[in-house]
Specification:
two-stranded antiparallel sheet; binds zinc ion; seven-stranded parallel beta sheet; binds D-arabinohydroxamic acid; TIM Barrel
């Protein structure tokens, strides 16, 4: 039994640093998806987070920047964010962490030498290397049949790497039905824009067929701050009449990622989205009205986090997850993890990476492991001060729950 604080600190850090992670939300693809999988230093440097940060210093026109090659964009970002200014932002520091953990001489500041490391790297070998260094054992992809670049892969060989799990992403269906219904028609679903009963049935068939085709672990969507159910809208009707019944029938969670203000600066593209406070009463309504359904929820606004944790106390069919996007910064990860652990104990999923570039698994998880470990040390230390004692096995059990088992248990599957 551990009561000594130094022994505790070492035991927690060892457990957190060695746990094999299930990363429940990423934008990665297995090697089966060819060029859809992004990796390497130029992809790291042109991550949309860094593009937004680059334009803080640049008066180049958006058009001119996006007309450059990826290599030329990376050169500009490296020069501006790393050489002309110290790279202290989380996304800037992340690039350094990746290069450092790959064993490269970061202090050389020699971007071309970093590029040489990747020059003749084999994709599959690099996937293996990144999984090894990052300590990740499974990642859940974001799989969108409405993406014309991705759908052909599912219509042929699909995913061949068991480390990569699928999640069916349905933003176009829920947020743009007046246009996306035409694609459903092209694919043979008898739907119409007025969402009659036949359309409802056919949308359910689409969801069912694609969840099965992908073996999707959950159904996911990102939603605006004003997302409301119930309301007299196509989205609300599709959620209640199609998504909820299919998810219940197939026993897959509905993952709602709420709070995205799309393209507040449309000229920035992916980097142009921003954040707004979501309406927690919609989460309450869905969890209350559909107790047989499971809901994975992450909210984008820092201002939503305490009420989301409290809502999870009210509904056991709600699993809170991640420090999403603009929240994925050390100061906020620390704050959110403390709020969650103080209100939910260990019954939540503290983090996902949201990685878009394979290499990012290395930094996003290295940084988050460190923060979550320190919160755990404080919380175990508090209960030791109250006369409790913990064992090394119990610490490993709790850490395994936070970094994967809570997810697998919630969805009712094992990490096969
Ligand atoms: O909608 C989402 O899944 C978000 O994570 C967006 O992809 C966003 O652009 C992002 O990459 N955040 O990290
Ligand atoms: Zn995402």
């Amino acid at each position: 039994m551990i009561t000594d604080k130094n022994v505790l600190r070492d035991a927690v850090r060892t457990a957190v640093n060695s746990v094999k992670i299930t990363d429940i939300h990423t934008h990665l693809y297995s090697g089966s998806f060819g060029d859809l999988l992004l990796w390497g230093v130029d992809e790291l440097l042109t991550y949309h987070y860094l593009i937004a940060e680059y334009f803080r210093y640049s008066d180049m026109s958006y058009r001119d920047f996006f007309a450059l090659s990826k290599r030329e964009q990376a050169d500009l970002i490296w020069q501006t964010l790393f050489l002309e200014h110290s790279p202290v932002s989380e996304a800037q520091r992340g690039v350094l962490t990746v290069l450092n953990k790959l064993g490269l001489d970061v202090r050389s500041r020699n971007l071309d030498s970093f590029r040489e490391y990747f020059a003749d790297m084999n994709t599959q070998d690099y996937i293996d290397k990144v999984f090894e260094i990052s300590g990740v054992k499974s990642v859940v992809m974001t799989n969108d049949p409405f993406d014309p670049l991705e759908k052909p892969y599912w219509d042929t060989e699909g995913n061949q790497d068991p480390r990569f799990k699928a999640a069916l992403r349905i933003d176009p269906l829920l947020n743009e039905y007046p246009t996306s219904y035409k694609k459903l028609q092209d694919w043979g679903y008898q739907v119409s824009v007025d969402l009659d009963q036949r359309s409802i049935d056919e949308i359910k068939r689409f969801l069912t067929e694609w969840i099965k085709k992908m073996d999707a672990l959950y159904l996911a969507v990102s939603l605006p701050p004003n997302f409301t159910v119930p309301e007299d809208s196509l989205r609300s009707r599709i959620v209640e009449q199609c998504v909820i019944p299919v998810c219940r029938e197939l026993n897959v969670p509905f993952a709602m990622m709420i709070g995205v203000k799309k393209l507040v600066n449309y000229q920035l593209g992916l980097a142009g989205d921003s954040v707004g406070k979501a309406e927690i009463q919609t989460v309450e309504y869905l969890c209350r009205s559909y107790p047989e359904n499971k809901f994975l929820v992450t909210l984008l606004s820092r201002e939503n986090q305490h009420e989301l944790a409290i809502t999870a106390r009210k509904f056991r069919n709600l699993m809170v997850f991640g420090c999403w996007w603009f929240l994925n910064n050390p100061s906020i990860i620390d704050e959110m993890t403390r709020i969650r652990m103080e209100t939910l104990g260990l019954s939540f999923i503290p983090q996902h990476s949201d990685a878009r570039v394979l290499d990012q698994l290395i930094y996003k998880w290295s940084h988050s492991r460190q923060i979550i470990a320190e919160v755990l040390i404080d919380k175990y230390s508090d209960i030791i001060d109250a006369g409790w004692a913990v064992t090394e096995e119990e610490i490993k059990r709790d850490v395994a729950d936070l970094f994967g088992e809570n997810f697998w248990r919630f969805i009712g599957r094992s990490c096969d």
